[in-house]
């Protein structure tokens, strides 16, 4: 099998991976494995913006307090404060690279860039590039990475597993070429920036969602995973059964959009004093309950009262996209439904992104830093990507070379697995997760999910044990086991908290703890 040696290996090329690459390249040579599908990663579809304390009328304590409230008692306050306090410097760095954030048209504004407000925030602190912030940031980072002499981007490879040596250290990644040929990239340090696990569900806010592949790759090496049961469903995804997923940014509600039921009535003010700006878990459950009550396939998000000029100014991407699907949001409300959006759990890491496996790091949505707790507050995700990529790069500048040790052996099978069969298994897994482990979970449904996934997993495992390597099969096998760990975590949490709501145990526990699992815990 072909093998090459590298210094710093980053798997994943969204905002977290590219930010790390640009910072680490000041001290070490970087190889970034970024398959073409990363162009449609969650980073690119982030519309709302980046939360940071930028206005002189805002302060760190307020941002910390808002995050802790949204996290429903399960945040690590040390991680929250660390993230919030590093935010302004991270934004200044993006500005220095030329990210085209939207300027405030008011010359008397205390901050030169427009700051919007989203759910859970007590102040305007979301800096944005119109309503396409992820795309603007990602394009700027990519342009800088392509021009950097110490960064090599491999967009012809897909990682399917990690390499371990006999000392238990991570030593790189096993990849497949575009033609399915295996190759090994040995590395002194390996960083996963592979995204979350919303692809475990049938309906998502991204056209090409990750399914937790990186999380499970880390778990295979013995890394601890944490808080997998807290899967965030974004309240407002465009309802269009025949079209591709499209997120309707929370900033639409931040600027005054109203949620309406099938009768055209607002329902959020009666449920929460924050109304449409309540945290996402509350809004998503309210929409789900309203749909169940009325039998409607969606609710409505109405911005007509803002006026066409304001809509076109604040939401040009959303306006144009909906117009392309035959909906003029200046003249009619937008049909919306909740959809799987963000994984608050992932590979357990410290404040430098280090996992429990030596020489293996995780950043961005693949990691669980303790920032989000039981529910991520809006626009803290890109902030986390930036802050922890920068802190991880500082750690990498200081770590000594790894001790030499032989690699563990790998013997792949040779049998071909039909791609249609792989698709069938993936659809079955997503259906189980969507029906049993979504916005509202019950004991019986979780028990059935565990049983159904166990049987499905046995079928897939039989194929994997004898199959020749393939990216679709590897992705499915990672996703299948992560789904089972997610169900385990959900069954073990005997309370309702944040994104985990179980009517069979509706009250929050007095002393909540993060869930921590290893791959050996799979039943």
From TrEMBL:
Span of domain Fumarate reductase/succinate dehydrogenase flavoprotein-like C-terminal: 426-507
Entries under PANTHER family matching the protein: L-ASPARTATE OXIDASE, L-ASPARTATE OXIDASE, CHLOROPLASTIC
Pathways involved: Cofactor biosynthesis; NAD(+) biosynthesis; iminoaspartate from L-aspartate (oxidase route): step 1/1
UniProt subcellular location: Cytoplasm
Required cofactor(s): FAD
Domain FAD-dependent oxidoreductase 2 FAD-binding span(s) in chain numbering: 7-382
BP GO annotations: 'de novo' NAD+ biosynthetic process from L-aspartate
Lineage, broadest ranks: Bacteria, Pseudomonadati, Pseudomonadota, Gammaproteobacteria, Oceanospirillales
Catalytic activity: L-aspartate + O2 = iminosuccinate + H2O2
Organism expressing this protein natively: Billgrantia montanilacus
Pfam families reported in the protein's UniProt record: FAD_binding_2 (PF00890), Succ_DH_flav_C (PF02910)
Principal location: cytoplasm
Family that this chain belongs to: Belongs to the FAD-dependent oxidoreductase 2 family. NadB subfamily.
Function of the molecule: Catalyzes the oxidation of L-aspartate to iminoaspartate.
MF terms in GO: L-aspartate oxidase activity
Taxonomic superkingdom: Bacteria
SUPFAM superfamilies named among the record's database cross-references: FAD/NAD(P)-binding domain, Succinate dehydrogenase/fumarate reductase flavoprotein C-terminal domain, Succinate dehydrogenase/fumarate reductase flavoprotein, catalytic domain
Protein name per Swiss-Prot or TrEMBL: L-aspartate oxidase
Keywords noted in UniProt: FAD, Flavoprotein, Oxidoreductase, Pyridine nucleotide biosynthesis
Annotated region described as Disordered, given as residue ranges: 498-523
EC numbers: 1.4.3.16
Cellular component GO terms, alphabetical: cytoplasm
Keyword Hydrolase: no
Keyword Flavoprotein in annotation: yes
Broad EC category: oxidoreductase
């Amino acid at each position: 099998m072909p093998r090459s040696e590298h210094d710093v290996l980053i798997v994943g090329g969204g905002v977290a991976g590219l930010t790390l690459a640009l910072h680490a390249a000041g001290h070490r040579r970087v190889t970034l494995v970024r398959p073409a599908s990363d162009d449609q990663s969650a980073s690119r579809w982030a519309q709302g913006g980046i939360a940071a304390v930028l206005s002189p009328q805002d302060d760190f304590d307020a941002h910390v307090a808002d995050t802790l409230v949204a996290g429903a008692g399960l945040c690590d306050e040390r991680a929250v404060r660390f993230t919030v306090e590093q935010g302004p410097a991270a934004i200044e760095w993006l500005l220095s690279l030329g990210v085209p954030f939207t300027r405030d048209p008011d010359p008397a504004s205390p901050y030169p860039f427009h700051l919007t407000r989203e759910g859970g925030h007590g102040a305007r602190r979301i800096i944005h590039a119109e309503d396409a912030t992820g795309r603007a940031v990602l394009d700027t980072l990519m342009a800088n990475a392509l021009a950097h002499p110490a960064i090599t981007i491999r967009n012809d490879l897909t990682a399917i597993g990690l390499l371990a040596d006999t000392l238990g250290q991570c030593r790189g990644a096993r990849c497949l070429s575009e033609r399915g040929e295996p190759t090994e990239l040995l590395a002194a340090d390996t960083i996963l920036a592979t995204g979350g696990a919303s692809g475990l569900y049938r309906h998502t806010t991204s056209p090409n969602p990750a399914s937790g592949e990186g999380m499970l790759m880390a778990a295979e090496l013995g890394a601890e995973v944490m808080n997998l049961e807290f899967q965030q469903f974004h309240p407002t995804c465009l309802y269009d059964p025949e079209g591709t997923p499209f997120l309707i940014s929370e900033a639409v509600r931040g600027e005054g959009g109203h949620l309406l039921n099938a009768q055209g009535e607002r329902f959020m003010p009666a449920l929460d004093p924050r109304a449409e700006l309540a945290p996402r878990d509350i809004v998503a459950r309210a929409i789900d309950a309203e749909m169940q009550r009325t039998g409607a396939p969606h609710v409505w998000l109405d911005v007509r009262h803002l006026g066409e000029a304001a809509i076109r100014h604040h939401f040009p991407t959303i306006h144009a996209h909906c117009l392309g699907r035959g909906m003029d949001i200046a003249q009619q409300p937008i049909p919306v439904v909740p959809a799987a959006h963000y994984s608050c759990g992932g590979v357990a890491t410290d404040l430098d992104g280090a996992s429990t496996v030596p020489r293996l790091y995780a950043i961005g949505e693949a990691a669980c830093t303790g920032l989000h707790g039981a529910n991520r507050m809006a626009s803290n995700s890109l902030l986390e990507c930036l802050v922890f990529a920068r802190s991880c790069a500082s750690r990498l500048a200081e770590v000594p070379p790894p001790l030499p040790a032989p690699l563990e052996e790998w013997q792949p099978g040779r049998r071909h697995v039909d791609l249609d069969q792989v698709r069938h298994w993936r659809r079955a897994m997503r259906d189980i997760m969507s029906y049993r482990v979504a916005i509202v979970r019950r004991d019986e449904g979780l028990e059935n999910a565990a049983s159904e996934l166990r049987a499905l997993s046995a079928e897939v495992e039989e194929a994997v044990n004898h199959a020749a390597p393939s990216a679709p099969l590897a992705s499915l096998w990672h996703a299948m086991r992560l789904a089972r760990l997610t169900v385990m975590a959900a069954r073990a949490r005997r309370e309702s908290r944040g994104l985990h709501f179980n009517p069979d145990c509706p009250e929050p526990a007095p002393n909540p703890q993060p869930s921590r699992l290893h791959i050996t815990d799979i039943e």
